[in-house]
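Quick one: sequence plus zinc ion SMILES, need structure tokens.
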Amino acid sequence: MYNPKISVLYLSRFSRLLVALVVVASLMSSMTISYAAYSGPEVSNISMMPIDRAKFLVGQKFDFEIEVKNDTPASAIEVMVNGLAAEVFFGKQAVIKFDKMSTYRINEVAFPQAGKVAVAVTVKSEKGIEKRTINYEVSGEKIKKPAKNVILIIGDGMSLQARQMARILSKGITEGKYNDLLEMDKMSNLALITTSGNDSLVTDSANSASAYATGQKGAVNAMGVYADSTKDPFDDPKVENIIELAKRTRGMATGIVSTANITDATPAAMLAHTRKRSEQNFIAQEMLNPLHRPDVILGGGSRHFLPKSVPGSKRTDDRNLVEEFKKLGYPIATTKTELKQSGTPDKLLGLFQLDNMDVYIDREVTKNPAVLGKFTDQPTLMDMTKTAIDVLSKNKNGFFLMVEGACIDKQLHTMDWQRATYDTIEMDKAVGIAKEFAKKNDDTLVIVVADHAHGASITGTYHELDGKTGREGVRTYADAGWPTFVDADGDGFPDDPNPSVTLAVQFANHPDYYENYKFQEVPTSPAIMADGKAIANPKRAPQGGDLKVGNTPTSDPSEVHSADDVPLTAEGPGADYFKGVMDNTEVFHGIVRALGLDGRKNEK
Amino acid sequence: MVRLTRSISRAIFLAMMLAWLPLSWTGQDGTIPYDGSSLFFTRAQAAPAWLPWLGEQATHLEFNEFYSGASALGLELSAKLESLKGKKVQISGFMAPPLKPTLSFFVLTKVPMSICPFCSTDADWPNDIVLIKLSKPVTALPFDRPITVTGDLEVGYQMDEETGFISLVRIVADSVEEAN
Ligand SMILES: [Zn+2]
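Reply:
Sure thing.
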């Protein structure tokens, strides 16, 4: 008798077997592929700068350097580029030095054509011959109707989790559905960006911003250069960055805006070249260099612009950069009021704090005089972004603007997620301003990205309504329910950063510190240095808190960066480039592709 | 040339800090006696008991009294600070771990130090710090308990020759004592 149930069963068994076979086969093939394509890092005495697999914009300038470390000095270094001697290929003489560390260097070269490049190096010494071959890629890709402007907005340390905290606090969530999304959530394209630098899994803000600005991997603390092994932080081989390219090839206006010292890593990497991000006095004076002088500079950190004789200055010379900018025709703004009164000049320098600007909560919510001191009239990131766009958009050749929400990172380092989140919301409002401008003419690409992540995650909520405190007050799964943040005035920021039920945010990587899950009235460091070791700061939780034993080396008193990938969202012409998982250097290539930049062109 | 000299001095500063690093590690193991070498109550540093009667009376100073005005264009020294130049003052704060054990100065801060002195330059330090100059090199002190410093006030830009450390307000210390 025909039994349909059995036949279905047989069929399903057969199909299941088939599926299983296909899965096993595909697994095996993918295993062989990944096994064949992956090997441990190659160790060679020959280090090449730019590094293997570097990708350039056609015509983008860079310094080419080879270092050879050998017990016996090299006697000859031969370099072939696509089969031609490098000196012939680049049309330039190399400077070659033979020693325990031999070097071969040709400055300011470029690849004139798109395509693949193979560089073969042969080093001769008494010991014999050593060879190394590396490959480069040169891209000339551009979109049909290039964007006139690009606005790159970087949330420093703004991991996916930081964006989520901002979404919860700013928009709220009801029965599991967000009441609304952030401006940066509502963009057409989403990609996941990998963040590692060329010397380390975990990146810092200098080399990650440098990857966005140059399309090249960098080393920790380095910007616009490949780090060679000499001590001098100013002699490393340079790579042309986005501000230089925008100015040189298309005569674009350029601007940098940040809530940190404007000479801090992220804004500095858009224009400067140095191995050491802490050389902030050098970076400040480099902002005057016509090769990469931004038309708009807005942020904190005037201490690097004032002569040493002025109290509060951190310069070691008598240069008054504020005056030097004034002579070049830059109006100067030092307060929000002055910024508002500046109108739309052709260029603008605004410095609103001696050091990093204060964070949104302290500036706009609590306005605590103990925190702000005399700096009671600082603009918001929205004010600065709006002004920068108004000024830069006057240029008929378009503009490149970088806006940084800098203190998201700084506040996560001190494990102050409330302050970090208000600053993330502030940055999101700046994104809204950029999007509004972009909507008008449809000729502006807006990119929002973080430079690296922090290991902070929401694991539930925290409250003491039933008397439980400390770790017992952390509510997980069904107990978590919902936090009780309220934004009654509808400004997008919760009215009280310390509601009865708050988020339980836990950090993955931290020093010893006291945790009470509450908002800190005054920014307070989690740990202090004592006898060469970071110990928990007793002032951190004056009302009492659990001691959390650190899990990072005691040499560091703050929370540290994590190696997590970070989200990027984009909208506008060229945004289609951003999808899937991408290397951080691809952000640069997405920008120059959208703008249709050609490194071979010279505007001036 | 200026850049070269500066980078050389920076390199020296960095090298010195690096050289101090292993020392600080051995310090943790107790090879540098923590209590034994404390500056507290040692004769060389403690104020002579008769000072309050024979010497001038020290004026009490607070960290938040340093500056009367501040803008992005600079700080304004307060009238009190100006008037106390070269005079005897007393201030309480926290000792930042010394940059090097052989330096005869340390930094006094309003709150316990939360930046790592071994990896930060003077650019990272807040403005309201006092450099405390001593008659003999710094050794280990408790860093998380407040201390009171008495000595002569110096005001004005100064760069330490050896380390390149920049300071605006300094006290040449007669005594360094635990605050109560
Ligand atoms: Zn950071």
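Strands of chain B lie at 59-60, 67-71, 74-77, 88-95, 105-109, 129-133, 147-159, 166-178. Residues 2-28 of chain B form the longest helix (27 residues).
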